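New to this. Explain these tokens.
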Amino acid sequence: MGILKNQSGYSLVETLACISLLGIILFISTSIYLRLFNNPQIILRSEALFLANKEIEAAIHTKAFRDTTYTSENTNLLIERLVTSVDQCVRIEVSVKHVHTQKEIIKLTSDVGE
């Protein structure tokens, strides 16, 4: 019986090394992903940005150019809309604050022509 001279394939050791390297990369990327998207500050800022954007769009769509303040449905965010006239346009300024600390999370401003 002759020895095979074809050496073009991967060996078992190379295959196991590749699988273990992929496992390590997968573990690291999963832990970073979970840490990033389970961060409560990021989730709170994302919700605040969504609410502020929704408030500006609603004010422009309904032409409700007046001040208003209310709390969000889950009652931990305070949304405040201030409307001022600047030259020939209306400036809508929406700030979102935490209800308990009154710390401003985000502020969006939009200028709309009358």
About this structure: The chain has two helices and four strands. The chain has a mean pLDDT of 86. The first helix runs from residue 12 to 37. The beta strands are 68-71, 77-86, 89-98, 104-113.
